[in-house]
Amino acid sequence: MTKIRNIAKYVFLTIVSLISIFPLYWMAVSATHASIDVIRGALLPGNYLFKNLSNLLIAGDVRGAMINSFKYSIVMTVLALFICSLAGYGFEIYHDKAKDAIMSVLLLAMMVPFVAIMIPLFQMFSKWGLLNTTLGFLLPTLSTPFLIMLFRQSARSFPHDILEAARLDGLNEFNIFLRIFIPTMKSTYASAAIITFMGAWNSYLWPKVIMTDKTSITMPMLVANLKEGYVTDYGVLMLAVLLCSIPTVIIFFLLQKQFAEGITGAVK
Amino acid sequence: MGNKKKLSLSQKQNISGWIFLTPATLLIAIMSFYPMIRAIILSMQSGVGARITFSGLTNYKRMFSDAIFMQSLKNTFIYLIVQVPIMLIFALLLASLLNDKHLRFKGLFRTCIFLPCATSLVSYAIIFRSLFAVDGYINTALVNLGILQTGYNFLSNPFAARIVIIIALLWRWTGYNMVFYLAGLQNIEYSIYEAAKIDGATYFQILRKITIPLLKPMILLTAIMSTNGTLQLFDESVNLTSGGPANATITMSHYIYNSSFKYVPNFGYSAAMSFLILILVAVLAAVQMKVGDKRD
Amino acid sequence: MKKKILSVLMAGALCSTLLAGCGGTKEAPTGNSSAADNAATAADDNTLTVWCWDPAFNINAMNEAAKVYQKDHPDFKLNVVETPWPDLQTKINTAGAAGDLSTLPDVFLMQDNAFWKNQISFPEVFADLSATKAFDFTQFAPGKLAYSTVNNVNYGVPFDNGTVIAAYRTDILEQAGYTVADLTDIDWNRYMEIGKDVLAKTGKPLLSSMANESDIIMIMLQSTGASLFDDKGDPSIVGNETLKKALETYKELKESGVMVLVNDWDQYITTMNAESVAGTINGCWIMGSIRAAEDQSGKWAVTNLPKLAGIGEQSNYSNNGGSSWAVNADSKKKDLAVDFLAKTFAGSTELYDNILPSGALATWLPAGGTSAYSEKVEFFGGQEVYSLLTDFASKTPKNNTGVYYYEARDAVAAAATNILAGADVDSELKTVEDTVNFAMGK
After folding, report:
1. pTM for this one?
2. How far is the C-alpha of B125 from the C-alpha of C415, rounded, in Å?
């Protein structure tokens, strides 16, 4: 009985996995074909990969876009994680009525579509001389209610006896956060890092509006450029899209191990 | 004496709490609330492009006589009501299956199931459209199985097109939500499960009695996020169906985008419609917080 | 063990914040310096910044234009920033609404269909080119010039041609016993007869089109000189006999199977490249996508489109798409931008000869007479396609896009979908007019 159930489990997970990766597989296969074969629906790998690659390198500054995307995404992830986890910790561990109320108000900030605040934001940044700067790129999404809430919710399962024990040991409040909370909550940090990195990596509308300089192109902008125009080379487009997807996948694969090891062991 | 010292200690802790949350809160205040106030003012103005004048609540009244906006409101709620519960239940199911120490290839399964939301929108849109095309794989399969006589154009029928959007959303976002549940499950001690299993509890009993109650904070988070994400849904409507057939799948955000950037720009009206979304999400989130945000 | 993990994590966290701090501070100067670079180029009187979007097409044309201009102005430099059209529109709206035009370039390309809308919405962005007296606008095809002429003032230098062609697979037509001559100078009734015959004999429809777009209907409309708006800019939809006739023809095309509808652009291209249709009707820029299927070389031919019989001017010519150059009125280098455009896109046959291989057809009439335009194109069975298209362009009736073009066009597309599903044409036209009136605030 258990055996059948076990097999069913594996079969189920395998089917779900296959459905999930099919588009990625198709994207990878398409990247190895000439445009016309992509359009005609190729499902097995072709031999056009290097031609597509050389065409892609001519079509856009792939190296520059990769470097920019990595730079923005890493800086964003590290800063956002630090600022928001500190706040989430503050909101939950020291919670009182006032802080709970502020949290609810903060949530409002993510509920209005970005298009609505984009023009006022652009006006502010133009006044402050932040157009065309990295800081201008980062600032609007550095602190998000979503991340704060994610850490606040996770901090709820942070054992209070650990907290009290650390205080008795004489650690100050910030050190408790830094030395105890961060290592304990690494699965939350891992998921937050994945989500933030992915968001920063794929961000398009705001960077496009605020960065007008040719040298500040990112990977999603490069992909968008390839799509526009009267004739699209689908092989080259799919290769660019593949290159644009790979970093998030790698980051996920590296960090997902954290989901396997919980707080058990690390704390005790 | 001792009492006094204790008080100052908890005061000290309270101050630390305030200091910790200040940077993030200030950033949100400046980067979101200030522009939002400006947008509220904008929503009470109307006109073409940059030449706008104060018009009071005209934009808000206008929404309710706008047939396309009303259609988009209806579409968005259909997605919300049908898709969000299915997605969250499915994500929870997958997370609990994958949170098994004895399961092999965990990492592989996890990565595969997460992949859809990391896959670029461009390829995802092309694939979903071609899957559901008249001569696409889905139709070929249905015809071969004898369910259909000839290929059916899913995207040309309002009902079928909405189903396609819902399937696409499920495919793209289930793994994303699963990540939060997996992370949340790690904060639950594994020994609780082992003990329950030894006591002879079934999978569904464990799910209902242990997993769900302990994951409640995360379930609340994902519920609010998904509600918000669905009410602001944009990509699928634009890329999969272009809002068609005849506006049957257009979402509120898609229509707001059109009225700001595709049509003659009417920023005041766009801002007004955006605030309706804000109010709707806020009400739904408040209900969810009321139900789910209790510390026991 | 536990301590080790802890300290590694902590060190990691600290390092990364420090790094980020450094990165941040390092970033700021580079950010500033790039802004300073921009300021430097802005101070450099000989560099123009241009926004356009297609490397193989309009970006290439701009670079070629720079080469032509550099012959007499050796110090001249061009900075072309690749900007997809939707983003260009977003940036103009954001900058225009925020009242800070400093991020906009000196010259930008504008979709013809969006020209009126943008000029009316953000007049401060568009330089008045009539007032400069640098251009002879009579040298442009009038149908094309109308797109960028608002209230008798020229705000744009016409660039690429959206002249409509009908392209057919000669080999498939032959199987059914027809030639391209049989499909030239015909009306839609004859097209339908031939189409049904071709479908019966070869199983291939003559035409494919996108379900959510109204391109075919708009093409029919313009071929008669009609439009969705009257001269005052008010919608003329209810009682517009041409539109009604176009919608009915569209329905017949679909129901007879002569036209097949697909859901998106990629599938539309597929129908041609994968040989599932025998022809297409679209702006001449579609030739680029047709030619992507190199193995079909010699099997295609180009001719004019069917006319809408019994209504209006009844021509076999129309337009779909195309774009024009605009000059930023706020630019400090407006004079240079005007001189550059006047001596290239409105004054150099050499430029147009150079960019012809990329498929960029001149709307500047003097360019159409050069020998380059009489080249025989192998892919289209040795036809002199370019001079043919120049001829089509000069015969295309004017179109009054109006300011609310996109609103009206989307409403017509929705109506067309409903009509195919069985809705009554007159009541759908009423809905379209109501939708447009609503958008106009009436």
Report:
1. 0.88
2. 25
Q: Please give the DSSP secondary-structure letter assigned to residue C103.
A: G
- Among A111-115, B5-9, C16-20, which stretch is predicted with the lowest mean pLDDT? C16-20
* Structure token digits, residue C379: 């892919």
Q: Is the pLDDT of residue A90 over 80?
A: yes
In sequence order, which residues have a C-beta less than 8 Å from that of residue A168 and are 6 or more positions away?
none
Q: Convert the pLDDT of each residue in A130-188 to its tens digit.
A: 988 889 999 999 999 999 999 998 888 888 888 889 989 888 889 999 988 998 888 88
- What tokens were used for C46? 């000989």
CA atoms within 13 A on the CB side of C341: 31
- Minimum distance, in Å, between the CA of residue B107 and any CA atom of chain A: 7
Asked if residues C372 and C361 have their Cβ atoms less than 8 Å apart, the reply is no
How far apart (Å, rounded) are the C-alpha atoms in residues A249 and A245? 7
Q: Closest approach of chain C CAs to the CA of B260, in angstroms?
A: 8
Label residue C312 left, alpha or beta by phi (over 0 means left) and psi (-120 to 50 means alpha): left
Of the candidates B247, B252, B62, which has an alpha carbon nearest to the alpha carbon of residue C442? B62
Task: To the nearest 10°, report the CA torsion of B256, B262, B266, B269.
Answer: -10
Structure tokens, C164: 């409509």
Write the single-letter amino acid at A1.
Answer: M
C288/A230 CB distance under 8 A: yes
Q: Taking a C-beta distance cutoff of 8 angstroms, is the pair B129, C267 a contact?
A: yes
Q: What is the ipTM of this complex?
A: 0.86
Structure tokens at C213: 């777009």
Q: Which chains touch C (3 or more CB pairs under 8 A)?
A: A, B
What is the overall mean pLDDT for chain B?
87
For residue C334, give how far its alpha carbon lies from the nearest alpha carbon of chain A (Å). 19
Characterize the bridge pairing of strands C164-169 and C279-283.
antiparallel
φ/ψ (deg, to 5) at B199: -70, -5
Determine the Cα–Cα distance for residues B291 and C252; give it in Å rounded to an integer: 56
- Whether the CB-CB separation of C264 and C210 falls below 8 Å is answered with yes
- Are B292 and B218 spatial neighbours (Cβ–Cβ below 8 Å)? no
Cβ-based neighbours of C24, under 8 Å, separated by 6 or more:
A75, A79, A134, A135
Distance between CA atoms of C219 and C199, rounded to whole angstroms? 23
Over its C-alpha atoms, chain C yields an Rg (Å, rounded) of 25
Beta-carbon contacts of residue C422 (< 8 Å; ≥ 6 apart): none
Residues near C230 by Cβ (< 8 Å), separated by ≥ 6? C236, C400
Can you tell me which residue has the tokens 């994207």?
A: A27
Residues 72-101 of C with CB under 8 A from A: 79, 81-82, 84-87, 90-91, 94-95, 97-100
The identity of residue C120, as a single letter, is: I
Q: Determine the distance from the C-alpha atom of residue C29 to the mean position of all C-alpha atoms in its chain, rounded to a whole number.
A: 40
Chain A, residues 26-55, CB within 8 A of chain C, namely 35-36, 39-41
Instruction: Assess contact for A32 and A51: CB atoms under 8 A.
Output: no
Q: How far apart are CA A190 and CA A198, in angstroms?
A: 12
B92 phi/psi in degrees, rounded to 5: -65, -45
Cβ neighbours, 10 Å, residue C272: 24
Give chain B as a 3 state SS string.
Answer: CHHHHHHHHHHHHHHHHHHHHHHHHHHHHHHHHHHHHHHHHHHCEEEECCEEEECCCHHHHHHHCCHHHHHHHHHHHHHHHHHHHHHHHHHHHHHHHHCCCCCCCHHHHHHHHHHHHHCCHHHHHHHHHHHCCCCCHHHHHHHHCCCCCCCCCHHHCHHHHHHHHHHHHHHHHHHHHHHHHHHHHHCCCHHHHHHHHHCCCCHHHHHHHHHHHHHHHHHHHHHHHHHHHHHCCCHHHHHHHCCCCCCCCCCHHHHHHHHHHHCCCCHHHHHHHHHHHHHHHHHHHHHHHHHHCCCC
Question: Count of alpha carbons within 13 Å of C244, Cβ hemisphere only?
Answer: 15
With CA atoms as reference, the chain B residue closest to A113 would be B274
